[in-house]
Amino acid sequence: MKNLRIKQIISMKADNQEMTVHGWIRSFRDSKAVCFIALNDGSCLSNLQIVIDRDKVDLTNIISDLTTGASVAVTGQLVASPKPEQPVELDAQTVQVLGPSPSETYPLQKKRHSFEFLREIAHLRPRTNTFSAVMRVRNALSFAIHHYFQEHGFLYIQTPIITASDCEGAGEMFQVTTLPLDNIPKENNSIDFSKDFFGKKASLTVSGQLEGEIMALALGNIYTFGPTFRAEHSNTSRHLAEFWMVEPEMAFCDINGDMDIAEEFLKYIISHVLENCEEDMAFFDKWVDPGKLEVLQQIVKSSFTRITYTQAIEELLKSKEKFEFKVEWGIDLQSEHEKFLTEKVYNNPVIITDYPKQIKAFYMKQNDDGKTVRAMDILVPRIGEIIGGSEREDRLDVLTARLKDQNLPVEEYWWYLELRKYGSAPHAGFGLGFERMVQFVTGMQNIRDVIPFPRAYGSAEF
Ligand code: 4AD
Ligand code: MG
């Protein structure tokens, strides 16, 4: 006798084969002679209908435990269903309650719950339709990411989570210390980090890029895919304090190659989800973000719009739109500007290049104009920036000057500079915010609802 998941079962031909199914009751309906259980096991959105003939199966001792949320094991025969919306159902022979779920207190009732409420019960929200669908799409995306890079000869590299360098130079790092916070050792009034665990100041990584560059400049093409941490105090629907980032780095590659790969990669992982998560994507298209499927299908076929930062500013200045943040050359584009460009002006993903050097990280390659750098951000509708990347500064003298310009401690980047001293080569890469990608594909509004256990400013539950 087989032990199958519901996803497999509902695609099988019904020829009375016997099987055991495990899952959680979504609903129970008692109509005296026959009872029905809608059973879900998390393998797919669909429930399996269990039909219990009271003359064949004695429920006397367990019927009060057959409530929403209870876990059960059901053995029965797979038969054709009379209902058109489901191909098969299970004709039960035995029903066993493994874990009852008192209905007076079970928080997941059959009605729709708000996402805010579900965040408070993150231990139970994977049992809802929306959240389980998000997790399956998240899984498919992460598989597709590895698949794309493995197929294209990129090596998967694990970069450190604890680090002593601030990759983005933005000072948004969580410190890692074992120093006693109530009695911090001081030397001339400043903290004596030589007494700390690593003998120096250490933090959680904001990006694996710098270490990724080391590996790319030896191995060719690499990618990282891991957690990153940013102590940004921004309480928005697109920011987390702990999020996952995919960071490929390519040797002998310039900004154009960088954009080509990023565009191909995004289309590839979207296609994978469209092909492999049909049921879940139809659910999002119907209930969460109507029209999403068409948008995604269109994007896979489209060519992304490529413009420079200067052109983007001109477009924004030309528009009649009232922005909260004033537009002028030199500003960092705000989410409202990004969304306006991708949703209203181009109605397409947009790649913006050649940003002013003042608003970008020290490692980006300077253009000959001395004012801009070879950065590229990819913006998509609803989200804004989903990818940030650049060609890297590969000239030792220019890079050293940039570090000094930004008041960064040049000595601490000695190894990063040596990569430019010994066998420097053009190279480029980008970072995809994984949660923003899950948000984009599913249409979920809040980034806290696309990660199992969100960590954000003021919140680290579960
Ligand atoms: O643009 P960012 O800061 O770029 C880097 O970290 C580079 N080192 C990447 C590289 O070139 N290797 O971040 C990359 C992406 C953003 O485009 C965004 O999608 C996501 O990471 N991201 C966040 N996602 C969730 N919460 C946050 N607080 C995020 N900050 C950035
Ligand atoms: Mg960025």
Average pLDDT figure = 95
* Beta-strand percent range: 25-35%
Count of separate DSSP helical elements: 12
The level-1 CATH class of the largest domain: Alpha Beta
CATH topology of the largest domain: BirA Bifunctional Protein, domain 2
Bound small-molecule species: 4-amino-1,4-dioxobutan-2-aminium adenosine-5'-monophosphate, magnesium ion
Fraction of residues in helix? 25-40%
CATH-defined superfamily of the largest domain: Bira Bifunctional Protein, Domain 2
Which sheet architecture does the biggest sheet show?
8 strands, mixed
Could you name the ranges where pLDDT drops below 50 across 5 or more consecutive residues?
A: none
Side-by-side strand order of the widest sheet = 7-13-14-19-18-17-16-15
Please identify the structural class as seen in this structure.
alpha+beta
Query: What does the radius of gyration come to?
Result: 27 Å
